[in-house]
Structures are given as structure tokens and as C-alpha cells.
Write a structure and sequence with these properties.
Strand order of the largest sheet: 7-8-9-3-10-11
Number of strands: 21
Helix content: 25-40%
Radius of gyration: 24 Å
Order of helices and strands: EEEHEEEEHHHEHEHEEHHEEEEEEEEHEE
Number of helices: 9
Shape: elongated
Distance between the termini: 10 Å
Low-confidence stretches: none
Oligomer: single chain
Length: 357
């Protein structure tokens, strides 16, 4: 699809192969839901072409616009949105019945999909009798009973508790892989992308700023949002020499990477690679950053010390240090400190920037 919506200042260019599962990541208001609405036919672009399989469902140049119900698209939302007056079986049989299937055929399909999501025993219950996890399983079965060409999922685990989400995540992964089903999932959760998706895009201010295989994007992110999601530090700048990056606010960072001089790049390093000092160190670390502690959080057996935003407005650097180190240094929010990281712990990567379709 290539689509632009002027009022929302969004411009997307996305292509999926048959059987791909795409995770769409981004902050609130970045444009993720707009992307789903364009595919589903709930929103018309000002310019663009959208095709599902070989069928063009939107083409602004020819006036083509296939309505949502005829696109072969099913949507799974944050809430199950089951019909409260129907049984579970009737809810799942609803889509086949709408397609004109006989009642016996529709209920046979409902039984098959309820078995697939391990919810056949719930067939005679009403939605009010279901837990959140059970309701979402039924919603998955109902969506798949529609036999969609593409399944759209909008934060499907966001309303589930910590015990209900993992089974639904595993269910979706197994169903998608077994059927090679094409799907797009909008999520804020790194686990959703890692467990379910094969590809990922990062959306920022209505543009795709990063895309590729899940493992590539989340192990070497190039955008600030993906870096925060992946739990690594990211500093942007311009390459000034071999293994040297200069930030837009004048700091110099040394790292590993052979990138063209004058090219835009990002420096990545893990929170575990950063050390915290009260005074600027002058020993082996070659990269030192003055910072003010913005917050401190317990993170497993360590304490994550996060600095205030970088001078260019990017998210502050964070270091994972031991509780003993926090006590020895008497660290607290508002305190002025220095982060240090050795050059061999820093990798330089080409920066990805938003592009218009």
C-alpha cells in the first residue's frame, strides 16, 4: 500500500508477502491506527493505492474504493466486542452466516475455530460468563471464521492481565505459523513483536522511520522509539571519521563502525555498558556524558538510572548498576553525574529517517 492522509499528516508505504505478520510499533498518536483504518477501508486516503493479494481495494487515481465488508479483512480490537445476546458458538458462526452459509455449515465452522483456539467448551456460554482471556480467544475464533485474506489486530493483549496475555500471544503465533496467515498487529509490547511477528515497522509522526525483520530492528534499532522499546541507548549524529560520531549539540562519540564521513548515523550501547561516576573519569572510557538523574527504577537485580533528556530532546541515557553502587555513590534524582562507556561497547549504524511515499 502507498497512502497519504493530509488531515492526519500521515504517509505510508508498506508491502507484505503472503504469510507475513507485521508488527506496527510507535508512540501514542504516531499514526498506527490510521494505518489499520486505511487497510480496513474505514478511512479513505487523499492519495494512494491499496491492494490486498492481487485485488486493488483503494485507488484514488481511478476512484476505486471497496467497502470494508467486501475487502476480506477482519479486525481484532483491544476489547472482544462479542454480541452479548448471543452464545459463543453463535458469535463465531455470525460471519459465515452473513456470507449466506447454511446454519449447519456456519456452526460447523464455529466448532472448528473454537477447537483451534481451545475454547470449544465455551460454546454454550454468553459473553458475560467469560473471563477476559476467554473472551479474547472467542474473538480470535470469530475473526478467523470470517476467512479473511488479512487479519488486523489493534492492541489485542492490552486489556488482558499478565496471566491471560501470554496464552493468547502463543495462540496467535501458532495459528499464524500453521496457516501462513497474513496479519498486521499494532502493539506497544515488545513481546508481541518478538513472539508473533516476522516483520516490524516503527511509525513516528505519521511516517515509517524503521522497518525490517523483527530481530534486525530490535537488536540494532535506528529510531529513538525502537531503541527505548529494545532497552538500548541511542545517540544521533553525523560521522566525522572512522568510528567517530559528532552529535548535533557538539559531543563526540567513539565507537565501532565503518560508515561514510558526513553520513547520518546513530550510536547504540546497552545500559549495562554504562558506568556512573560522580566526577568525570579520565581513565580508559573514551565516551563521557554529563547528565542529571531524572529517575531511578528497580529493574530485576539492578537499578536503572536514567538521565534527563539529551540536549537535542532525545530520551535520556540510562545505566543499569547494582544497588550497592547506588548506595556507595548515594545517587538520587536531581543529582549531577557522569555516564561513561568504552568505545568498544558502542556500535555505529546508519540512521533511518522518515521518507514520503
Amino acid at each position: 500500500m502507498r497512502a497519504r492522509v493530509r488531515q492526519r499528516d500521515t504517509n505510508f508505504d508498506v508491502a507484505l508477502d503472503d504469510g507475513d505478520v507485521l508488527a506496527v510499533l510507535g508512540a501514542n498518536g504516531a499514526g498506527k491506527s490510521t494505518l489499520l483504518s486505511l487497510i480496513a477501508g474505514l478511512l479513505r486516503p487523499d492519495h494512494g493505492v491499496i491492494a490486498i493479494d492481487e485485488t486493488v481495494v483503494t485507488d484514488t487515481s481511478t476512484g476505486t474504493f471497496v467497502p470494508p465488508h467486501a475487502r476480506g479483512v477482519a479486525m481484532l480490537a483491544q476489547h472482544a466486542l462479542l454480541f452479548p445476546h448471543m452464545t459463543v458458538a453463535a458469535n463465531v458462526a455470525y460471519a459465515p452466516r452473513c456470507k449466506g452459509r447454511a446454519r449447519s455449515h456456519a456452526y460447523a465452522a464455529a466448532k472448528r475455530w473454537l477447537q483451534a483456539v481451545d475454547a470449544e467448551h465455551l460454546a454454550d456460554r454468553k459473553p458475560s460468563q467469560l473471563s477476559g482471556g476467554q473472551a479474547q480467544r472467542v474473538a480470535v475464533a470469530r475473526a478467523l471464521a470470517a476467512e479473511p485474506r488479512i487479519l488486523l489486530l489493534d492492541e489485542p493483549m492490552s486489556t488482558l492481565d499478565v496471566t491471560a496475555a501470554p496464552p493468547i500471544r502463543a495462540l496467535l503465533r501458532d495459528l499464524f505459523r500453521a496457516d501462513r496467515r497474513t496479519a498486521v498487529i499494532v502493539t506497544h509490547d515488545l513481546l508481541d513483536a518478538l513472539a508473533i511477528a516476522t516483520k516490524v515497522i516503527v511509525v513516528d509522526q505519521g511516517r515509517i522511520v524503521e522497518q525490517g525483520p523483527v530481530r534486525d530492528v530490535l537488536t540494532a534499532p535506528r529510531s529513538a522509539f525502537a531503541a527505548r522499546l529494545a532497552g538500548v541507548n541511542l545517540v544521533a549524529g553525523v560521522v566525522t571519521g572512522p568510528g567517530v560520531l559528532r552529535t548535533h549539540y557538539g559531543a563526540t562519540i567513539f565507537g565501532i563502525g565503518n560508515l561514510p564521513v558526513a553520513s547520518s548515523a546513530v550510536a547504540l550501547f546497552a545500559p549495562t555498558a554504562l558506568s556512573v561516576h560522580l566526577d568525570a573519569p579520565h581513565a580508559s572510557p573514551r565516551n563521557v556524558f554529563a547528565a542529571t538523574i531524572a529517575e531511578m527504577d528497580i529493574n530485576g537485580n539492578t537499578v536503572r538510572v536514567r538521565g534527563a533528556n539529551q540536549p537535542d530532546g532525545a530520551a535520556g541515557l540510562c545505566a543499569d548498576v547494582t544497588a550497592a553502587a547506588v548506595a556507595d555513590l548515594d545517587l538520587e534524582p536531581g543529582q549531577h553525574i557522569h555516564f561513561a562507556v568504552k568505545a568498544h561497547e558502542v556500535t555505529l549504524h546508519p540512521a533511518l529517517v522518515p521518507t514520503d511515499a
